[in-house]
Here is the input.
Amino acid sequence: MTQRLHKSDLGNSLRNLMENDPAFRPLAYFSMEVGLRESIPTYSGGLGVLAGDILKSAADLGVPMVGVTLLYRKGYFVQEFNKDDWQQEKPAIWNPAHELTLLPNRVSINLQGREIQIGVWVCEIVGATGYPLPVYFLDTDFEPNHPDDRRFCWNLYGGDNKHRLCQEFILGVGGLRILRDMGYMNIETFHLNEGHAGFLTLDLMREQGYYDSDKIREQVVFTTHTPVPAGHDYFEFGLIDSVFPPDALATIHRMMPDMPGVSMTELGLRYSRYVNGVAKKHAEVSNVMFKMDSVDWVTNGVHPATWISSGMRKLYNRHIPGWEQDPGRLVQALTIPKKELWAAHQASKLRLFARVLETTGKQLDPEVLTLGFARRAATYKRAELLFSDIKRFIDVTAGGKVQFIFAGKAHPSDNGGKSILQKIRQTAKELADKVEIVFIDNYNMEIASLLTQGVDVWLNTPMRPREASGTSGMKCTMNGIMNFSVLDGWWIEGWIEDVTGWSIGPEPSASDFDHNYDESLDAIDLYSKLEKKLIPTYYKDHEKWVSMMQHTVALNASFFNTHRVVREYAAKAYSIDFRGM
Ligand SMILES: *Cc1c(COP(=O)(O)O)cnc(C)c1O
Here is the structure.
């Protein structure tokens, strides 16, 4: 980390521009949520954490980008449970002044006939080579804004559809205006991480002063993130008419004619020069869904330095010099001595178990095969699949052969998700004398990092093909932890049976899209592989187990990282030649 790679490696013209004008940033990345660290709780799950990881890698690589998102003063909630194991939400109050710097810039927008002032806070990510990348958090919670308008920056994904519409107008239109106010006049590409910020196209049109949709399209890149309908915001024109100021209203009607309302995904698809999904399978599914053939894919990744344990980092530093700036070099992981890899892994396992003991009072055995499952408790993720045949489950796992650690939050208004969490917690209690199952409350980036460094195997059982990518399993690969997962999202690309992990259920096929496959097949396969492959390998073939860990780093971590993702976006979507990358 002694060199400052970014400047000397960039193309000359780009270098001059950057040196003469620090505000020269041709790329702006917009995301409704950004997860940089758990002390800035303005993310709910994978979308935000991915955004944070991409911005961090962009900083490491010296990519001239800025990030734009909203500030949520009440964060995404703190999770607790009542005596019936029903999730309770407490506001995750935090103090932005401790984490961010308030800037003097103010711009205004008009919503529901009222003027709203928008302020901005900044968090500067300093990359591995010293390059600073600012992430801007928009804020409306201050005088003299109307009390109702101040609430727009309280909760992520809270409130009704009108509230959401206003938040997205603030993000897109307010975001563009604040960038201009700060002097960013030369942005060539606006990257929409999901459709939420799509209204920025309205303000680009206003700036332009005349209607030319091709010129807007040339400036926008759009990444779609989910084939699940709840992930695609839709606003009826009746609602939009009651909220938008007249000029924006006229523009949106012109941009989306013959429509009863605005789907933010549709807006993104129509007004972007490049559209991608987040894994190969997801692009295929999206092309069918959107009746298109041009949706490309850039498979997601995770930010290595954020997710790799300190023990593994030291090991990689010793055996694979330069891996941090170029994680592709992790392909050399087969040269890491097995003993050292195992020791580093067990250290992370002990750290996780210490936390489990502290928070749940349960003492887990570090010599026992430990499976982890943690993610948002959305129904399609099927956290309860493991318990679908309790008798068989006990058969396979009882007697201290396997233990399980669960975590996850359900959206406050998602009762389906809350019942899943209830079922997991109650099953854990019912089986307490047979199988060790623990639930860690309040899943966030810190818990995610303990888990993805400390379990032995990462379990994922989504309903095909609804997991667009999934990223928690990638965090595991950074730490040499194998995936045991349904063949969906990224795992289709990372899976080599008995080498990088194990599949669950049938291989993907074109008919998966109809969702009409027999789900019990997945459960049957899960139990049988656990019994015939995972348990025997873990206990009886340690050499093979650790060799699989090496292969997981070499074949998965070397690819599913955000350094590779950012380079791919630069080449395919941004069309900017960062020569040093
Ligand atoms: C990485 C992460 C996620 C995303 O995990 P998926 O596997 O994509 O579901 C969600 N929440 C937190 C806190 C994370 O760190």
